[in-house]
Structures are given as structure tokens and as C-alpha cells.
Design brief:
9 strands, Rossmann fold, Pantoate--beta-alanine Ligase, Chain: A,domain 2, globular, three-stranded antiparallel beta sheet, 2 domains, 282 residues
Length: 282
């Protein structure tokens, strides 16, 4: 089995990408922060169907973490990640350091609006989407992919990146991939590793509430009544709820009735020290 090339500098990555381009190869990029799980592997497998070459980036991006968040403790398992990527037969691992991504004197930042200011994740993590948009734009510039794949679990992020690529005329197609779940419905996330056994047992309530709420809205129940019932159930389970909202699936603007389609239900809540997010289509 051939190990992927691991590259850590922009010139080295560009030499590889340029060689692929000269051969007429298409390129798919899967951006990650490492600590790879089955959700990431699902992205990679779809990437391999989309393009001749697959680049996976591993970079824990400091600019999307607030000072009180878990940057220092975020799981880092590079050796295990590399073994998983070798098994998936990907071509390149792009693993820059923070000094490569943000060298001394770095002074430019993208500040997205639209879906990035929907009052969802941005309300609780106001720094987040500027950090995400900036690093993803850099990744697109560095790897020059034809396709970039992102999981739907981070749905607001997916909408922000899709809009950014469109607005900045970036020559990359953004591909959203359905959320991969445990058997009990919990969305896969690197942060699930933080959950205690008791918290892990409670965590699937988020998906159960989303599914039940979507079914009720489809059958005609009043949106706000459904959301209030869902919020109460989540809180009773022991979560500190940040939001449970029904939004237009493309703009993430609030909706008042089931007729304002397409609709996405989105939730974020904290149990113990772990903050979880999820979403479903209605």
C-alpha cells in the first residue's frame, strides 16, 4: 500500500498540484482538523469518486477558537490519522504548521455576512466564521481543488463556505455530504470523545428531537409550538440549550410557517463540558 505524500510547505504542495494539473488530473480537497472518524472517511470516499486525486488537509485552525474554547485540548492524533488516510489510498496530506498558515505579519481576514450572521453559531461563537472563511479560502488557494467536500453536520459552516466560494468566484465546487451517525443517531464528531458515559447516553436526544420536530412540522403543526416542545425536552434531558431553530435551508433566515421551504432544523446544546451541534432537513 502506497503511503500518501505528506507536505508541510506551500511551495511543496503547489509543486505536487501543478504536476497533477499537467497530467490533466482532477483534484478533490477534504479539509479537516484531524482526529479523523467515520464521518471524515465518508467525505474521503466520496472525494475519491469525484476526482482523480484527493488531498486531505489536517490543520487545527487557531483563528476559529475563542480564548475560552478547547484549542489546546482539541484531539490531535496525527500518526493514527496518517494510518487511516493510507488505508483510504489518498494522495496527499497537507499538514501545515500555524506559522506556515499565519506567518509573521499576516494581516488579512475574511469577514463573511449573510448566513454567517444568522444568529445561530455566530451568536455564541462570533469569532468563528471569520476564522473558518479565512482558513478555507487559503486552503482553496493552496490546493487549487476542483471539488471540496464538507459534512452537513456543520450546516451553517457549509452554507457560509458555499456562499464565499460563489461570491469570490473561486473555481471550486462545494459538495455537502450527509451527516454520518452512530447507531443511536448521535452525529459523529471529534468532540464526542469528551463525553462521559452518562453524557454519551443522553446525547442522542438532540437527533431524536430534530427528527420528531421535523415530522410534526411536515404534518402541519405550528412551527413555534413544535420548537418550544423540542426545547423543553432537550433541557429536561440535562442539556444547556443554545438554540433549536427552524430556518430557510439556503439563507438560514428565520421562518414562520412550513410553507417557507426548504426548511432546516438546527440545534446546539452543551452537556457537561461538551458542546454538540446537529441539524436535519424538514
Amino acid at each position: 500500500m502506497k503511503a500518501p505524500q505528506v507536505t508541510r510547505t506551500v511551495p511543496a504542495l503547489r509543486r505536487i498540484v501543478d504536476a497533477y494539473r499537467r497530467r490533466g488530473d482532477t483534484i478533490a480537497l477534504v479539509p479537516t482538523m484531524g482526529a479523523l472518524h467515520r464521518g471524515h472517511l465518508a467525505l474521503i470516499r466520496i472525494a475519491r469518486k469525484r476526482a482523480r486525486r484527493v488531498v486531505v488537509s489536517i490543520f487545527v485552525n487557531p483563528t476559529q477558537f475563542a480564548p475560552n474554547e478547547d484549542f489546546a485540548s482539541y484531539p490531535r492524533r496525527f500518526t493514527a490519522d496518517l494510518a487511516a488516510l493510507e488505508a483510504e489510498k489518498i494522495d496527499v496530506v497537507w499538514a501545515p504548521s500555524a506559522a506556515v498558515m499565519y506567518p509573521e505579519g499576516f494581516a488579512t481576514r475574511i469577514e463573511p455576512a449573510g448566513a454567517a450572521q444568522a444568529g445561530l453559531e455566530d451568536k455564541f461563537r462570533p469569532h468563528f466564521f471569520g476564522g473558518v472563511a479565512t482558513v478555507v479560502c487559503k486552503l482553496f488557494t493552496q490546493a487549487a481543488p476542483d471539488f471540496a467536500l464538507f459534512g452537513e453536520k456543520d450546516y451553517q459552516q457549509l452554507r457560509v463556505i458555499t456562499q464565499m466560494a460563489k461570491d469570490l468566484d473561486l473555481p471550486v465546487k462545494i459538495v455537502g455530504v450527509p451527516t454520518v451517525r452512530e447507531k443511536d443517531g448521535l452525529a459523529l464528531s471529534s468532540r464526542n470523545a469528551y463525553l462521559s458515559a452518562e453524557e454519551r447516553a443522553a446525547a442522542p436526544v438532540l437527533y431524536r428531537v430534530l427528527k420528531a420536530s421535523a415530522a410534526r412540522i411536515k404534518q402541519g403543526d405550528a412551527v413555534e409550538l413544535v420548537l418550544d416542545d423540542g426545547r423543553n425536552e432537550i433541557i429536561r434531558t440535562g442539556f444547556a440549550l443554545d438554540y433549536l431553530e427552524a430556518r430557510h435551508a439556503l439563507t438560514l433566515e428565520p421562518i414562520a410557517s412550513r410553507d417557507e421551504v426548504p426548511i432546516r432544523l438546527l440545534v446546539a446544546a452543551k452537556i457537561g463540558k461538551t458542546r454538540l451541534i446537529d441539524n436535519v432537513a424538514v
